[in-house]
């Protein structure tokens, strides 16, 4: 299955509100079960049909990223609402796909954007690697980078906030 087809399938499942989807072709078998507490994705190639389906690596990433978020939101509870009201004036640039975010094209070159940089619509702001393909992510709006929400070389999920931009 091509990455674009997989992304379209994920988008469809997310928008449809379905709790379980099973797809089987000659090449693979895909089972997606949506559970708010523990997302599960299974992928089995028909060449491995005798082997049991293994959960994909992506469910571990959300659990890891949600645990620190829950811990950080429970400790500094009073500052969180103040920060949320401050962030309301900013536009959030979100991840258009699942993958690994890189803030520069290689380790020895400067990052695409830093906090305080002015960006223009269509400017490359990061790269997301998905299935060994490096996808340049372009800014959806013009403005100034106020906050970078994801560390370099970190896994990101679809629709995860990446940057806060002041459009003024």
Would you kindly provide a written description of the structure presented here, covering whatever features stand out?
The chain has 168 residues and is α+β, with helices and mostly antiparallel strands. The protein has two domains: 3-60, no CATH class; 89-166, RNA polymerase II/Efflux pump adaptor protein, barrel-sandwich hybrid domain (OB fold (Dihydrolipoamide Acetyltransferase, E2P), Beta Barrel), CATH 2.40.50.100. It has three helices and twelve strands; from the N terminus they run αββββααββββββββ. The protein has helices at residues 3-16, 60-74, 79-87; strands at residues 20-24, 28-33, 40-45, 54-55, 91-94, 99-102, 118-119, 124-130, 133-138, 143-148, 154-156, 161-166. It has a four-stranded antiparallel beta sheet, with no helix packed on it. Strands 5-12-10-7 form a four-stranded antiparallel beta sheet, with no helix packed on it. β1 and β2 (28-33) form a beta hairpin.
């Amino acid at each position: 299955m091509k990455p674009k087809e997989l992304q379209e399938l994920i988008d469809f499942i997310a928008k449809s509100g379905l709790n379980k989807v099973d797809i089987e072709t000659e090449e693979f078998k895909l089972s997606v079960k949506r559970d708010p507490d523990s997302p599960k994705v299974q992928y089995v190639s028909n060449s491995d049909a005798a082997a049991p389906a293994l959960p994909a690596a992506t469910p571990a990433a959300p659990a890891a990223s949600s645990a620190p978020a829950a811990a950080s939101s429970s400790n500094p509870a009073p500052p969180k609402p103040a920060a949320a009201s401050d962030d309301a004036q900013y536009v959030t640039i979100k991840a258009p796909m699942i993958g690994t975010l890189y803030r520069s094209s290689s380790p020895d070159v400067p990052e695409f954007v830093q906090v305080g940089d002015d960006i223009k619509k269509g400017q490359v702001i990061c790269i997301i690697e998905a299935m060994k393909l490096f996808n340049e992510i372009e800014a959806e709006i013009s403005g100034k980078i106020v906050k970078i929400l994801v560390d370099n070389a970190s896994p990101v999920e679809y629709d995860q906030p990446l940057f806060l931009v002041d459009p003024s």
